[in-house]
Amino acid sequence: MHAGRLLRFCWLLTCAGIGGGGIEDAWAGAWLLPQGDGQAIVYSDFSDSTRAFDAQGHLIPVRQYRKFELGTYIEYGLTDWLTLVVAPAYDRVRNPPPGQSYNGLGESEAAARVRLFQNENSVISFQAGLRSPGAAFADSLGPFEVRRAASLELRGLAGRSIDILGMESFVEAEAAYRLYAGNQPGEWLFDLTMGVRPLPSLLMMLQSFTSITNGTSNFGHVSWTKLQPSLVYNIAPQWSVQIGGFITIEGVNAGRELGPMVGIWYRF
Fold first, then answer.
1. Of 84, 110, 119, 231, which one is least surrounded by beta carbons within 10 A?
2. Domain range spanning residue 149?
3. How many domains are there within the chain?
4. Facing residues of 202 across strands?
5. Poorest-confidence range of 1-5, 166-170, 218-222, 262-266?
6. Residues 6 or more apart whose Cβ sits within 8 Å of residue 129
């Protein structure tokens, strides 16, 4: 690969590959909390990879990079039709040159979700939130900067409760658009979730997260799709634990993330 193209690809890898995106979204469902109810989730995930997707979507070897994320997701039902969300995060990224390593505040969010429609089985809602910079995108046109600019996210959510072979289940779809500061290109996100409860105390989930960024000549095109299976087990009336993993199954100019995740849920 030509040196100039290699440098540009490594920058795009820094922009898109090491960024998480999606893990904290696993808990931001279309349903709203009842007034006065809340939940707090502390989660951690780790990814380690020596592979990345090039401009043609083919996997190629790259220098090893690692990312550790520790975050908290808190939501509270202010009213029956309005739920508030706060999601601070911490990132530790180890990315070899020409990328940069990073240790500090990850992408964090403050948002509000409103109910647009709900009946016995279905719900449609809308969420708007402000997100801080994080260690996943450049905040300037200079190459190899690891901090993403702040953004405004607008998200539409729809969910439906269903029955699968007598088991309580649900499906959910979300679509969002992020508008970034600093003349950075916008980002489309598409999230799908399916959950099945084979036992009253056990929830099985399969989720997919997709990001598409159609950038300028300085940023280029970046996209990826990530799968995340997980199990959530109720260990007490107010406490649950989540164990799962995630893998990037396809992408363009993006790193292939692969690793475990764990979470502790508390309902209040």
1. 119
2. 3-267
3. 1
4. 199, 233
5. 1-5
6. 85, 109, 110, 111, 112, 152, 153, 155
| Block residue for tokens 């439906």 | 160
Spatial neighbors of 8 by CB under 8 A, at least 6 apart, are 143, 220
Q: Which amino acid is at 20?
A: G
Please give the pLDDT value at position 133: 83
Residue 233 is part of a domain; what is its CATH number? 2.40.160.40
Report the C-alpha gap between 24 and 36 in whole angstroms.
22
What is the per-residue pLDDT across 51-86, written as a single tens digit (0 to 9) for each? 888 889 999 998 888 889 999 999 999 999 999 999
Please name which of 207, 253, 191 lies closest in space to residue 62, comparing C-alpha atoms: 253
Distance from C-alpha of 4 to C-alpha of 80, rounded to nearest angstrom: 54
Q: CA 82, CA 35: separation in Å to the nearest integer? A: 8
Whether the CB-CB separation of 11 and 98 falls below 8 Å is answered with yes
Let me know the angle formed at the C-alpha of 174 by 168 and 175, rounded to the nearest 5 degrees.
Answer: 170
